[in-house]
Amino acid sequence: MKFLGVAAILAIVATVSFAEDCENNDNVFTYISQKEGQKKVKSTTCRELYQLSSEDQELKCTKSKISNNCPSLCDADCDDPEFSCVNFVGKFSYEAFDPEKGALKITCDKAANKKPETKCKKLEIATNCPGVCYNSCENIDTDPCLNFATEFSYNPGKKGDTENEEKITTCEKIASKSDNKIKKLCKKFTEIRKNCPVVCDKSCAAE
To answer: Which pLDDT band holds residue 105 (cuts at 50, 70, 90)?
Structure first.
């Protein structure tokens, strides 16, 4: 058996710690924007901020909420971020452009076929459909064995049950459950089965 020296162990720990310190939040988060003395709560993602010019990124990174959520954008010691191009499979909610219409539902396929340049201005659509909304994904063939990267919702209740309309989860959370629980969730919920192939599909898990 090969034993590692103290220096080697510390180097490994430092590398793991560095990777964790440079890991972006994949999900939507909020921050306080102040303009002309008015404070406003805004929603964004690290990917959306990555599309900005370097000058605008630098300005955004002065906000602790952004620098904490997007270290690979704000910390010069971190490598450039890598973003997933995997679209969410299924319907998801987004706020309509017309406030009177409230929340609507859409799929990434529909967003791609219905004025994507307009639809992608909605943060929910851009987050759930990166393969549709970002030019960097145009020529990338998405591996069918990649999990959807961010939070997604699924409906655990029966039809018409208003008490438990939607639950928010991630593939990482599903994977942390017991084998029996994973098997039940993957079998019962299409959203989980299709969006978490590495968790639910044995052929993917074996790769």
So the answer is: very high
